[in-house]
Amino acid sequence: MNAASLKKDLPASLVVFLVALPLSIGIASASGAPVRAGLVAAICGGVIVGLFGGAPMQVSGPAAGLTVMVFGFVQRFGFATTCVIGMVAGGLQMLAGAGGIAQGALAISPAVLQAMLAGIGVLIALGQVHVFLGASPRGGALANLEALPEAVRALNGSALLIGVVTLVTLLAWNRFVAKRVPFLPGSLVAITTGTVVSLFVPGQVPHVTVDGGLFTSLAAPTIGSATVTDIALAALALFVVASAESLLCAVATDQLHAGPRANLNRELFAQGLANLTSGGLGGLPITGVIVRSSANIAAGAASKASAILHGVWMLLFVVLFSGFLAKVPLAALAALLVHVGVNLVKVKEIRKLVAFNEVLVYGVTLLGVVFINLLWGIGLGFGLALVMMLRRTTVVGVDVKDEAGTIKATVTGSLHFLAVPQLVSRLRAIPAGREVHLRFERLGALDHAAIEAIRAWRVGYQNAGGTVVKEPLDALWRELIPRAA
Fold first, then answer.
1. What's the DSSP call for residue 66?
2. Which residues pair with 443 in a beta bridge?
3. Closest by alpha carbon to 366, among 147, 111, 145?
């Protein structure tokens, strides 16, 4: 860190801190975790990943993309056990980073990833609409939809007013003011406005619950009643999702600046170290977060000192001013989270997927995430993406032309064992008893199974009275020549 870069990193870190503070509180609330858990995660993500990470401009912390998964863990195992799951997932990330396999996480289909984020956004919005109305969210999409009429009938008008004011302030600020005052994020302005309004509205509205100070009420991680298998499976799922989100965020962040490129293995190791620490201190799991990272770059950050300092500011706020959190109404946080959830559904990305014929994978993943659960949704989408990929690789073209009684057949495509059924079907459609000139062009692949299938068809065709002429005499045809008796 030098004086020149510090002059840029210091103001940038304050901007990122102001962006991260309300989001960390809101994500903790939506995850069913104590507010302090989001703040601890933000501190660990800023300081630890900032010090040891490999993506200089990326900022890490609690992420909306993990909210649904973490909420499920908290509901099933309790928060103390969720901390253990985060620690185990962090250990797996450290092993993966040290083993140099970070690139493997980039093999996830963009359709699956975008649908996963969109599904999470839908779930966040459906749950937080209840808080927006002064009620409590239910456990899943169907439950939230079924309970919505009841929440409307029991409407808390004061909570609704606070939520509407917060949301309108956020939208108006981002639309008309943000570019003129880039150092003041709309999320903070909106939460502050909603909090001020809550001081004057009549009736009771739910507020953020703060159980003591940060250091006097840290949760001790414990396995509780969960089995080792439960912990292992949950940690593996968290490892996959958190790693993919962090690494893809690092790649996206690289596209926003002209500085050094990200070292993905080092970044994954640092993410794991931060998750191990955060879980041990009673914090939420973390990932790289594109909202904070893009804000960091837009604010003019020059090095990873900005991410580190943002974690320091978060720590100072918790130590000196955490008592103010109890004045924040949940409806204001709900408005912020509804906005975050809706923005996770990216129409621009859907258009790209339509252009590449991957909208079916997107749709299946989205429905699975929303109406089954996150893991099933990812699994269904990934499985369908593999099936569609295999289907594309089994496309074989057999162009048959009848030229003066002679059949000219040209085979193109990938000739491997998966393509054999389609290949044989096309070859058997060639009229019997004719002279066939068979050519092979633009072959994407060729294996033994395809060669044997072609040989078997040729022998059968000639035994039935036809003739197959090798054209030209190449390596493939040499394989097709009958073996000497």
1. G
2. 413
3. 111
140 φ/ψ angles, rounded to the nearest 5 degrees: -150, 180
Q: Which residues is 287 bridged to in the sheet?
A: 61
The Cα–Cα gap between 325 and 209 comes to 8
* E strand residue ranges, 259-371: 287-288
Indicate the burial class of 147 (C-beta count within 10 angstroms; 0-12, 13-18, 19 or more): middle
- Residue 357's H or E segment, with its range, is none
The answer, yes or no, to whether the previous bond of 22 is cis (omega within 30 of 0) is: no
Buried-exposed string 394-415: b where 16+ CB fall within 10 A, e elsewhere = bebebeeeeeeeebbbbbbbbb
Query: Which CATH architecture describes the domain 395-480?
Result: 2-Layer Sandwich (3.30)
Q: Angle, to 10 degrees, between the axis of helix 359-371 and the axis of helix 374-393?
A: 160
Nearest one of 363, 425, 352, 357 to 394, comparing CA atoms: 425
- Domain positions in the chain are 3-341, 395-480
> Per residue of the chain (485 residues), what is the pLDDT tens digit?
567 778 888 888 988 998 899 989 999 988 989 888 999 999 999 999 999 999 999 999 998 889 989 999 999 999 999 999 999 999 999 999 999 988 776 677 788 888 888 888 888 888 889 888 888 888 778 888 998 999 898 889 999 999 999 999 999 999 999 888 877 888 889 999 999 999 999 888 888 876 655 555 566 788 888 899 999 999 999 998 899 889 988 888 888 888 888 899 999 999 999 999 999 999 999 999 888 898 888 888 889 999 999 999 999 988 888 778 888 898 998 898 889 888 888 888 899 888 888 899 999 999 998 888 877 888 898 899 888 888 877 788 889 998 888 899 888 888 888 888 888 998 999 999 999 998 888 777 778 888 888 889 988 999 999 998 876 545 455 555 555 43
